[in-house]
Fold each of these.
Amino acid sequence: MKLIKKVLAICFLLFGIPFSAVMILEIMNPRTPAQEKQNDVAALTILTIPSTILGGWLSWSLVQQNQKQQALLFESEQQRLQFVFLELIEQNAGRITVLQLAKNAGISTQLAKEYLDEKAKELNAVFEVNEEGNVLYHFS
């Protein structure tokens, strides 16, 4: 369905925009006879403007649909990350490292650190440094 919408939007826009421009130029041309100007106005009104509007509307709906899908994917990823985080907290008596979260969630260490820093602020975690120099986030 999305592919059909894309193809239709492109077709409507490729028809509507150039022909609208040509019709407008013909209407504005002082050398164009009055009868031809009337025909151009009719063609503009009946064919090219509706085609352009429909193509624009289809394009806009595709953009909106894509934004909704991205939001749903982001929300789904946040829920999965939350689940992994809670599992690790439960398994490790409230202690977790950036590396543990990154490994178990399949994300970068930078993203894991940002997530843990955010959760630490939200849940008032305590930071500890173990013998290897790794920072442990301790959630009570």
Amino acid sequence: MTQPTDLRGEHLRTALPLAASGVPVLPLRAGKVPFGNCRRCADNACGGRPNMKNAGPCACPGPCHGWAAATTDPDVILSGVWRRAWARATAVAYHPGGAWLTVVDLDNTDAITWARENLPATQTVPTTRGEHWVYLGPMRSVNAVRPGVDIKSTMAYARWLGPGTGTMTGLPEAVRALAVKQPSPVQPAPHGLTVPAGAGGEECRHRTPAYLERGIAMAEQRITEATSGIHATVYRTFLAVLSTHGRCGCLTDAHMARLFTAAQAKGESPRHCTDAWTNARTALGM
């Protein structure tokens, strides 16, 4: 007798190997959306912290708060609350930024044509209406960077549709540039440095690129020379960098990538780097 398809088992058979490879996963319900908040967090009773822009991973017992619930922990994935969610799930999603990835979501044929003409080739995954182009490296997630094009990386989730085809390439500046809002024409800053407006609207104190470069180099050296307490060193270094350089807008994804590379060379995982950076921003109210 043929047994009915066990969708829960199918999704778990997909999710567990992904988690074991370092890709944070979460179940999606009908409509390709995350599960609603658990009873403890219903009606924003928890204060909404895991839903805040810069919050860290969800600490709830179930797959609560969207992307923040994504995990690589098999004990969590197989826990009773999560098993009930998998039983109702219609798909598996993952947190690209937590896996050190960026997904360029191309929603139609026009967007695909534009990508082929303007972006470096990389791993490609077919979707219902278009394609996911997957690059190695995280960045800020932004929707509608151009018609039919979304960027999904940190603080976002993407549906897992398979490994795709082609060779994954490093995140190019052409993709990073899509997330940068073009500023109004301004007079160049001293020494030719164009200073972007920071989230906090603070005046830039750097004056020259050398000040920021020296700060990043010192941070890289501090991480590299650490002989113990690597987790704490990475967090404190990220906190110091953001405190000094993170409010005026001069700190870029390229600087963040340098710090993440130094941390990973000391054995830190991409997920821990992302968490440490996010927690440092949260601590500073950024």
Amino acid sequence: MKLDDLQIGIIGLGYVGLPLAVEFGKKYSTVGFDINEPRVQELKSGTDSTLECSSEELGSAPLLTYTSNLESIESCNFYIVTVPTPITDENIPDLTPLKKASEALSQVISKGDIVVFESTVYPGATEEVCIPIIEKNSGFIFNKDFFAGYSPERINPGDKVNRLTTIMKITSGSTPEIANFVDSVYSSVIDAGTHKASSIKVAEAAKVIENTQRDLNIAIINEFAKIFNRLDIDTEEVLKAAGTKWNFLPFKPGLVGGHCISVDPYYLTHKAQEVGYRPEVILAGRRINDGMGEYVATQLVKKLAKEKIHIDEAKVLIMGFTFKGDCPDVRNTKIIDIIKELQDFNMKVDVYDSWASKDEVKNEYNIELIDELKHEEYDAIVLAVDHSETKNMGINRLRSLGKKQHIIYDVKHVLSIGEADIRL
């Protein structure tokens, strides 16, 4: 296969798949496939509800078409799978979307085709889970009739600086020749360049440790914050002081949600335990970060009690619900942990977030987002997400939302030091 012969099929048009489809659609015949028909229709109309691609960017890919019809990608010869890889409530990898994508591909794949997976998995998943499904259902033989690659996604939702083309891409292939070709395909659209891994397993492992390392770095900062809170020391002031050393890493405390950092470590620990190794540091970090929502709620309750504000039926405003600032993504948001814990104390909780989809939040979390902020209404205000909108409100505007006696808890260090009543 040559680059001139490429006909690319992107499986999944979410935060990862759409930017890929747009970039490839500028140079190659590209079909974006998604089983979500409303999603396909919105993209056809030139709108992206994830806000990863502007209308102008969608219009810059003349060779890109969208479909929810599987037969429409039969003519493709280079497939890229970008479906989600979540975890179950028991923190076990859920490969269902990946398995279904593999089954779908087995119905359209032809001899000589290449399938590249981008979904985050544990080392070995591509060749142990996905490839056997394609082989079984298509009747084709791996590395004879069809080939595979793995190129982990590095999309950072909401980031308008570090984009697909400006982030170096890891590539790999199931044979040395396929590895070279996969690398050349990505190199043709990635300005930052590529790094060709020695095997698919190496590429899978590289991806899963990237976010695991970040998760652990945040976990230690969260533990620092818990210690400093007991010592009545402001965590941000400590981090600023320590940050004057050249090799101190600039992480901040907070809730670790989203589709990557809070999920990927469980893929690695699952595989580690499968081969007889019990990870200790990784799981300890996960326990700390998974417990931060409950910790924030408990700290707020203690502060209310200390200020002699009646806890039963207290009214609390949560500012922000998405998993990160200036981003509409509510997947695996840890704000829900704060809300549930406060409701367990019989508090009335209002949630405001102009970035989040009201319908999605209602469907996924059974939370009704409020439309307007009310003055002098709340016993406590929790700045849970650092949206620019919240930052721009300023302390006086935020204070106006509270009753005469109220508490402001600045979880994300939105305000200047000393302005909030309690900070993480």
